[in-house]
Amino acid sequence: MIRAAVESADPGSGRDTPEDWFHADVAGSGLFTDVGTRRFRREVPLDTAAYLRLLDTLSSQLRRPPARRERVRATVGAAIDGFGGRVVLDLRTTLVLARRPA
Predict the structure, then answer these.
(1) 29-38 burial string, b = 16+ CB within 10 Å, else e?
(2) Contact 102, 29 (CB under 8 A)
(3) pLDDT in tens, 63-96
(4) What φ, ψ does residue 13 adopt, rounded to 5°?
(5) pTM for this structure?
(6) Which terminus in the chain has less CB density within 10 A, N or C?
(7) CA dihedral in degrees (9, 67, 16, 99; nearest 10)?
(8) Where are the domains of the chain?
């Protein structure tokens, strides 16, 4: 829902990064051994105002020109309001652990 709203306000802005990109970079570098991953996940409910405050901190949003930034805010805010004024943020954190050979 949010992704579709952002894409409608700023076409071509969406990009999908593979979930395991950092693990792949570390493992593929050849600089580390015993590369492992731990994933943490939690759901964070946010109302429209809280989500928009979060949106305003994202680098993808901050890089937009001011007029486009406002258009994205308005479109996303309307989408959340249309969804009942509340969304649940699926917060995912990935910890990549590795050893550097001696």
Answers:
(1) eeeeeebeee
(2) no
(3) 999 999 999 999 999 999 999 999 999 999 999 9
(4) -85, -20
(5) 0.73
(6) C
(7) -160
(8) 2-99
